[in-house]
Amino acid sequence: MRTRTWRDGDGTLTVGGDAGAREVPLRIAASYRSRTRGLLGRDGIDGALLLTPAGSVHTFRMRFAIDVAYLDRKFTVLAVRTMEPGRLGLPRLRSRHVVEAEAGAMERWGVRPGVRLELRALGTSWGRPAPGTP
Fold first, then answer.
1. Which of 92, 110, 116, 118 is 20 to 30 Å from 23 at the Cα level?
2. Torsion angle of the four alpha carbons 50, 41, 83, 52, in this order, in degrees rounded to the nearest 10
3. Residues 6+ apart with CB under 8 A from 106
């Protein structure tokens, strides 16, 4: 299997198949510093935040409740939880990535266990330069 290298930046999260696909703006946090900061200090988020690699999260010092989706290596949703501020999430053994969004967003988008998500960094393909990108 090819190793994927993620970098901090923007992207899209696609939920669902061809006809019912929903694209959501995505912020990618791949560096230690950006994963540690996460959503701290924000009053909300438009879209979602991908933490990679990550197997668990916490909501200490957060200002709002969030939905958390734990993803495996193939971006299949293992579990979805809503977390209030000041909580420590349990680690998921097979989780390699975590997607965070405002509470209620995952249900609206159709993110639930067993669903496979497509994640794409803007201007890249799985963290590598896309063909034709300078």
1. 92
2. 20
3. 67, 69, 80, 112
Pairing of strands 22-29, 124-125: unpaired
Calculate ∠ Cα 102-49-103, nearest 5°.
Answer: 10
Give 11's contacts (C-beta < 8 A, 6+ positions apart).
26, 27, 28, 50, 119, 120, 121, 122, 124
pLDDT at residue 18, as a whole number: 65
Residue 1 is predicted with a pLDDT of 41
10-residue stretch averages of pLDDT, the chain, 134 residues long: 72 82 92 86 88 91 93 95 93 93 95 93 53 44
Stated as kind and residue range, the H or E segment containing 100 is strand 97-102
The CA-to-CA distance between both ends of the chain, in Å, stands at 26
Of 21, 81, 65, 71, the closest CA to residue 51 belongs to 71
> Quick one: how far is CA 51 from the chain centroid?
6
Bridge-based pairing of strands 22-29 and 48-51 is: parallel
The pTM score is 0.84
**Contact criterion met (CB below 8 Å) for 37 and 54:** no
